[in-house]
Write a structure and sequence with these properties.
This protein is an alpha+beta fold and 252 residues long. The protein is built from 9 helices and 8 strands.
Amino acid sequence: MSAVQSVQRAFSVLRSLSVGPAGVSEIAERTELPKSTVARLLSTLVDIGAVEQSDSASTYGLGETLVELSAAAAPGRNIVSISRPHLQDLVDLLEEDAGVGVLDGRGVYYLDQVNAGQEVQLRDWTGETVDAHVVSSGLVLMAFSSDEEQAAMLADPFSPWCERSITEPVAIIRRLESVRRDGFAWTMEEMAEGINSVAAPVFDPTGSVIGAIHVHGPAYRFPDPDRRDAITRAVVRTAARVSKRVAGSLEP
């Protein structure tokens, strides 16, 4: 194999991991390369820090070195690939669905979601937009937006999604002040009856909010009152870790 061909194939492997971690067989399928070639390339990429191997050694994801370089080139650009392993850790810990979203006008666009595999599951909102004022991710993104962005979002009336939706501008402003002070937001059956969620902000290296990490679940079991504070801390901690990765920090 020529040096140029090796580089091309290595980049093909890296591109395949931009959509999320995968095992050797799945990477081989994505890249249309032999599994033996993929395994050899992964070994080299792990050695130089461009790829990380999971604790179980069954899957691979983008590594610290690559994340650091990409963050320096375009901070926040790869938030999906950066956040995916942290979302999986959050799901493993809390046993509820976790996702990442970004502000889209007056709404939240959901970029990715990791499902917990519970017997009773909620729908996957990946690729859809929800009004920001009725979901925890939206409240976080609104709260940490610039004064100009927040003013634009508050300029027009808010529509209710269900009976518990909060739409009064004064109430929303007070809530955003609380979210900014606390660093997280909870919503309790405000988008739809029977769904609760909690979210925390993701920041870029300049301190601007670029996304929100959330966990949601059925109201009858989420949150467990005895674990609410622990759940909140876990989500805030995960969002902080993603922020560090976006900034290119080598801290875990």
